[in-house]
Amino acid sequence: MAPSAAPQRIVIENAAIATVDAQDTEYASGHLVVADNRIESIGAGPAPEGLENVVRRIDASGHLITPGLVNTHHHFYQWITRGLATDHNLFNWLVALYPTWARIDESMVRAAAQGSLAMMARGGVTTAMDHHYVFPQGSGELSGAIIGAARDMGVRFTLARGSMDRSEKDGGLPPDFAVETLDGALAGTEATVKEHHDASFDAMTQVAVAPCSPFSVSTELLKQGAELARRLGVRLHTHGSETVEEEKFCHELFGMGPTDYFESTGWLGEDVWMAHCVHMNDSDIAAFARTKTGVAHCPSSNARLAAGIARVPDMLKAGVPVGLGVDGTASNESGELHTELRNALLINRLGAHKEAALNARQALRLGTFGGAQVLGRAEQIGSLEAGKLADFVLWKIDGIGHSSIADPVTAIVFGAAAPVTASFVNGKQIVEGNRLLTVDEEAIARDTRAEAQRLARIAASA
C-alpha cells in the first residue's frame, strides 16, 4: 500500500481569533494552521516551529479570523426579481410575484444562483443553502443548475429540494400552473437526493427534503415528504410560523396552529429546521426545544415584509438551535449574510428583552456555529477547532470603518460590514481582497441583469 502524500500546510499568524467553540475561546493574537482541508492547530502566539510542507504563510495583522458564515435559508431564484412589490406583506407579496416566478427556466435559475452565491461568498459565507420550490413544467434541470453554480463558486452547499402541490384551486397561493403533483414532487425530490447528496464528513453538496409551506403544500406531501427524508437519511426544511396570516390559515384549514400541525405531520425533530418562526408562543418554543427542531432566523426579510420579530432570545434560552438566513433576495435585496449579524442583534433589541436580547458574540454564534447546528453539520464546521474542516474568514478590522473599536468581535457585528481580505472553504481560498477568485463578478452582473429583463418581458406578455 503506497504511503499517503504529506499534507500541504497553510500557516496564518498575528490575527485576532474568535473560535466560537463551546467555551467561546478567543485569542488577541494567534495562529491557525491548515493541513489540506482540515484545521490542524489553533492557538495563541505564533504557529509551532518546524512545520513541514508549508506552501503559504499569511501575516494576518489587523485582521479577525472567524469561522465561515453559514446561511440557513435562501431562495436563489429570487435574485432576478429584486426590487418588486416593495410595500407588501408576505401574502400579498407572494400573490404579486408567483405569476412571474412560475415562468423561470434553467438559464434564469443558473444566473440567479450565481448572483446569490457571489454576493454571499464575497461577504464571508462559506456554507450556503438554497430552498428551491418552483419547478415549472419544461423549465429544465433546475436542481442541477443550482448545484453546479455552487460547485463553480467553491462554496459548501445544501440544496433544500422544495415542492408545492397546493395551488389556487385547492385554497393555496401559487397559480395552478406553478405547482407539481404529489407523486411528481416526491419522485423529483428522491431523484435529486440520490443523484446529489453526499453524506461524507467533508461533503461539499448535501440535499434536504423541503416542501414549501403549509399554505402551498398538502398535508399528504408533508407527511410523505417526512417519511421520504427519513428513509433516505437526509434533513427536512420548510417555512413555519412566519406571519399572523399563516397562523390564521392553519387554524381555519386544520383546526390548529402551525407548530401543532407540523407535529401532527411528523415535522418536528432534530433532523428538521424551519425558516422564520416569528409567531411562536411559549408552548411552540417548548415543542421546538423538546424535539431539537432548528430555526433559520431571517431578520431583514421579516422586517422587509413586516412579519414581526422572532423570539430568538427565548428560543436560545430554551435550547432551540438557531441559525441565520438571508431569505430570498426579493425580500432582502442586499442578499448578504454578514449584515444579518448586525440586523439580528439590533432588531431583537426592539423586542421584549430590549438591550439584553443579544450581544455581539451571540450574534456571531448565530451566523456560524448556530447555522452549522441547524444544517446538521456542527461536527464539521461552524467553529475553529483542530480536526474540523478549514472553512474560515479573515475580516479586515484595521481600516477606517473599524480601527477605533477595540474589541474585534464588536467591530464586525456592531460596525459597518467589514471587508473580507480572504475566505477559505475546504482549505481553498475563494475570496481575496473582497473579490471572488473562482468566478467573474462582472460577467455574473451582466448575466443576472439580462435574465431579469428576459423574465420581466415573459411575465409581462403572459
Describe the structure.
- Helices cover 35% and strands 21% of the residues.
- It has 462 residues and is α/β, with parallel strands linked by helices.
- β1 (9-18) and β2 form a beta hairpin.
- α2 (106-121) runs parallel beside α3, α4 runs parallel beside α5 (219-232) and α12 (360-374) packs across α13.
- The mean pLDDT is 96.
* Unreliable runs: none
The helical percent reads 25-40%
Number of helices: 14
Strand content bin:
15-25%
Average the pLDDT over all residues and give the rounded result. Answer: 96
Described by the principal axes of the CA atoms, the overall outline is globular
Number of strands: 17
| Structural class computed from helices and strand pairing | alpha/beta
Let me know the largest β-sheet. 9 strands, mixed
Radius of gyration: 21 Å
Distance between the termini: 64 Å
InterPro entries: Amidohydro-rel (IPR006680), Metal-dep_hydrolase_composite (IPR011059), Metal_Hydrolase (IPR032466), MTA/SAH_deaminase (IPR050287)
Protein name: 8-oxoguanine deaminase
GO molecular function: 8-oxoguanine deaminase activity; deaminase activity; metal ion binding
EC number: 3.5.4.32
